[in-house]
Amino acid sequence: MILTTAQATLSHWKRRPGQLLTLVIGLALATALWSGVQAINAEARASYDSAAQSLGQSTLEILEPVSSETLPQSRFAELRRAGWLVSPVLEGRYRLGDRTIRIRGYDPLTAPVAMQPVNLTDPNDLLGFIGGTVGFVHPETYAGLELSETDLEIYAQAALPLGVLLVDIGTAQRLLDQRDAISHLVLWPDQPAGLESLRKLAPDLRRVRPNQTSDAARLTDSFHLNLTAFGLLAFAVGLFIVHGAIGLAFEQRRAMFRTLRALGVPLQSLVIVLASEVMVLAVLSAVVGVALGYIIAATLLPDVAATIRGLYGAEVTGNLQFRRSWWLSGLGIALAGAALASAQALWRVSKMPLLAPAQPRAWLRASSRGITIQLGVAMGLFLVAGLSVQYFSGLIAGFVMLGSLLLGAALILPGILSALLNMASRLSVRPLTQWFWADTHQQLPGLSLALMALMLALATNIGVGTMVSSFRLTFTGWLDQRLASEFYVTGRDQADADALLAFLEPRSDAVLPIWRVEGALNQHPGEVFAVADHPTYRDNWPMLRAVPDIWDLLANGEGVLINEQLWRRDDLSLGDTLTLPDGPNLQIIGVFSDYGNPKAQAIIGLSVFDRVYPNAARLGFAVRIDPEKVSQLRADIREEFDLPDTLMIDQASIKSFSLGVFERTFAVSGALNILTLGVAGFAMLTSLLTLASMRIPQLAPVWALGQTRARLAQFELLRAVLLAALTTVVAIPVGLVLAWSLLAVVNVEAFGWRLPMFLFPSQWLVLGGLTLLAAVLAALWPAQKLARTPPGDLLKVFANER
Amino acid sequence: MNVKVPLFLLLFPFAAFGQGFAGLGTTAADNFDVPELGTVFEFPTDHGQHETFRIEWWYLTATLTGDDGQDYGAQWTLFRSALEPKRTESWDSPQIWMGHAAITSANAHFHAERFGRDGSGQAGVTAVPFEAWIDDWSMMGAASVGEDALDEIELRARGGDWSYQLSLEATGPLVPQGQQGYSVKSEDGQSSYYYSQPFYQVSGSLELPSGTVQVTGQAWLDREWSSQPLSSDQTGWDWFSLHFATGEKMMGFQLRDREGESFTSGTWISVDGTPIALAPRALVVSPLGFADVEGREVPVSWRLRLPDYGLDITTTALNDQSWMPTLFPYWEGPIRFTGSHDGRGYLEMTGYEPAQN
Amino acid sequence: MLVDLKNVQKSYGDQPVLAGVDLQLDAAQSLALTGESGSGKSTLLHLIGGLDQADAGEVAVAGENLRQMDDAGRAALRRTTVSVVFQQFNLIPSLNVAANLSFQARLAGRFDRAWTNALTERLGLSGLEQRYPEQLSGGQQQRVAIGRALAVRPALILADEPTGNLDEDSGDAVMSLLLDLVRDTGAGLLMVTHSQRLAARLDRRLMLAHGRIA
């Protein structure tokens, strides 16, 4: 019986393949965007994890210097000879051709197994490795290396993290030009009993517990949450299509359902058959969607990887794997979405009286009650949005607010359009115009789902576009202020740096030290910078909050400046105290904006730095000089000091690099944006096509009263454009509210900085134009179909009374 | 330390019998020096390392008696393996160091293993002043001026929950093995440079999980270096160092052959330290009793006969489970023997593979 | 007794439709139910077909009390014992003639190919099996609906103005086919019609007025 019933319900799709296609494509597109985003996230997280694991960072404790960048390697032998099982590591950035990679040097003889990703069991391999002629990189990194730029024999090794060149400790010291230096010592998990304590043996070293979640994973968390939100938004838009398609398919089969029940199909069996049908279609669509998602993710991944490398310095593979985590989530969300979209229709079937007139109804008839309910729900959602921003904090609350806001705006849209159309109808005098408005009004419920999807896509576009453009404007201005010095140079070691200072002073307007130490600031990973008392800072440094005479106080060592991230994250105020890593408490006297930096940052005066960190490396300088002389200075330094290019950078290069990172970051948002708009356009097309087939009974009387089919088709086109235009008008304020939430709530929670909002009306015009174009394209085909409808079909309306 | 280092399975060919790699590293290639008959040892230089030879060791075993009346054994070994016949002062020096240490009692066997290399000072050997070390394990010369550097040494080693500290004083001279220190290891001519100091009197303390034990006893140091230790047919060895109650000493070993007859050799050392090389195959060794050790059948009791010297003894292990589960596992532990002669000694057995199921 | 109604009452809201109806129908008997619009004749038909439930009284079909059945029980009754032929033909638009014809029999698990072929032949539908309902005339569609009802070999056929949507000629033709086939299969027939002319062709006739048998 079930099979026979299924045969009947399924036969509907055979007769209407277009509807089936709409359903499958809609759900597939929604699933594709969602699973694509999840695939990217999963790949990135896997990269972070494997990076942490393959080098033992997630399991092994380390000893690192408290107040300097490196420690002398003699400390390694000292601790070993005191019985402590430690192993030396030297890390650093290294320029190979046009690519900067991370070098990690270790000692295969003393390293714990957990940090040994390569097999050196063959004596010849070991000889090559410790002999300094061999290095290993991940196969993907290998593919991008200019091997001719190095005399190392480099081999690909899949167990390695991306972007890391694994070499012997001695090789690392040679390549990084840091003889006798090590970055940290790794502690074996089990140490012999009865040793003298490390506190006594090595007071200059700090014992650091392994990071269960890697630094990269923590720093990039908000980035991935952002992507997820985008995926969810796209899915929501797709869900509107699915809801429409399923609703339509159920409405069109109401008569059939009734017949089936009259012929003796129990209600329960019917509901089971229909629910299974939806689920089978959902699985089918999910498979297509996951496949599409894979393509989307594979296309976007290189950009995402570049962004994450630029923003956070974390490496993400460019190769996408088919991971269970994300394709399962794609499948799950497709099923859940289909269930959600079909719940209402199924509920209606189960409540459908056996004997009521078996005609398609409800969703073609203007349902003022439906609009009222939607208005109520929308108000509720706005309330949720308001409450979540008022009473809760955190990124999740930010997204709850965004979601409620958007959904509420979508739900309120039919009400607004209905009111506008009513008004227009009342104002019009000529009968045909009056019919046009009334007819448009009647179409509204059938189109409202598509229009809601369009509104969401438009609002998202405007919101994200405004955010990105505001960010770009702010960011470029900020870069100009922040990077006031024309040239930046770093010495290889202290001797280098001292000589550089002497060399630079007579050749420039000013040489400003840039000295820094890393350490925790209020438990956040952070860094402390020292700056000189100089007009470069007094005139340019972008302050958000400042006490009077801030630069005098700073120079006198009477305060500390902190970046916006730290300020917002810990809700600090001017006058609060901040504890420097291994240092004193200082009063916070200013807050500066620091876009793009995931870490907490503090700035102190040189005198404090000298006192607190006497052993810190003092290697970097900012040089004020006539921009035209920069390239000459660079050449002179290279001549005199043989400094590699990696240690010298001019203002223009940093700026272009930073802006490059910025553009790539938002390239992904842009791509998702366009895809979402595409999905919405598709929703519009399918809705119009569906309506067109039901329009004939409504249009036939008008045709009979003396309007040509071509004229009627023009009206159809006009209506689509009009509705799209009205939707765009509503979408603009929604988009701006969205932009505001992104800038003032989500960004603050995700990245720790707040950006001023700027308006870009020309963007709205372009977007509006695109939307109208999309509406025309979507309406063109159904209108043309109408214009070519044989008069006989129109006549049937009168002959075949129902 | 329950973490195994996945390294250089092939690095220490002398210990690689169990791995089935006996055929590798048996010929001196890559310009390594080979021992030559007639070379005279030069001390103290020869106490130091010989980097142009492939492998070398400083191998000390002590038979001890504690103030608790119990027998103990202690082992301290530093191995050197060269990847190339050269040495530099930095990390790229191709010399690899491996340390083994153990304490054996009747019912426990503690052991530890360490790895290291040149370049940082973590491990190495200096001839003057004499010290061989890896991490906090050390064999340090403490002899007065005019004495041989090895006449007095301080020895220390540490494992996870145990350590020892021993002072050793030689009561006899260094003893060259084989033909003035040229020791033949097979009839194909494989050989090594080999001398011993078998006359140590020991005192010191063992730190065990159960507490501190003061110990005294005797010890035997072997110094050996070579580039081609074994013939490819040889599957392992059984090596004995015996302290007779009479004050005489004997070193004897059997190199087991895959197919043919095993090769035995050894040295009889008189009370004044005069060595007499035993004729090849003069020493007859035969296993008497086996124990199941880590899934292997290991002969922990032996009969040794040397008719020329009226020797016919039976050895028993202090602890049948004196197993060194190191990268290259082997059996090493103190023994007692009775029969024509009484005394204590040390037994090392390599190349016993797990039973095939 | 095929159908046995005792004091059946039914109202929609405040509007009483049936005010105590008693009705009996024997096996293989045909009965015409006539009356004005709104006299409650369709409602009575729906109650007997298990499409609706009486407020009071007893409804028994083929010895089974419908008032004690749940939805699944009534559905089973409609599948196997009672077939309904509506004024609107209620074919499944996405299935072709052959599939529509055998549909209910398949649902009931009683599909008999020879019988279905014979029905197709007698209903004059041969050659139209692959067509879809929208490609048929009204008379042809109703013949498919009749075939569908008979294919399951029901004990009782309920017909609600089966020719109401057809012109007189094809209506007469369809009615003749229906009566012949019902007689041949030995099924009972209860037909609602407002046409006295058609009613006269059945064994018995009853008139309903104001919710009672007149």
What does this structure look like?
The complex is a heterotrimer of chains A (about 800), B (about 350) and C (about 210). Chain A has about 800 residues and is an alpha+beta fold. Chain A folds into four domains: about 190 residues, no CATH class; about 150 residues, no CATH class; about 260 residues, no CATH class; about 140 residues, no CATH class. Helix content of chain A is about 60%, strand content about 15%. The longest helix of chain A is centred in the last third of the chain and has 54 residues. About 0% of the residues of chain A have low confidence. Chain B has about 350 residues and is mainly β. Chain B has one domain: AttH-like fold, CATH 2.40.370. Helices cover about 0% and strands about 50% of the residues of chain B. In chain B, the strands form two sheets. In chain B, strands 1, 2, 3, 4, 5, 6, 7, 8, 9, 10, 11, 12 and 13 form a 13-stranded antiparallel β-sheet that branches. In chain B, strands 14, 15, 16, 17, 18, 19, 20, 21, 22 and 23 form a ten-stranded antiparallel β-sheet that branches. In chain B, a hairpin with a 3-residue loop joins strand 22 and strand 23. The N terminus of chain B is likely disordered. Chain C has about 210 residues and is α/β, with parallel strands linked by helices. Chain C has seven helices and ten strands. The two termini of chain C are about 20 Å apart. The chains are: A alpha+beta (about 800), B mainly beta (about 350), C alpha/beta (about 210). Chains in contact: A-B, A-C. At the A-B interface, helix 3, helix 4 and helix 6 of A face strand 4 of B.
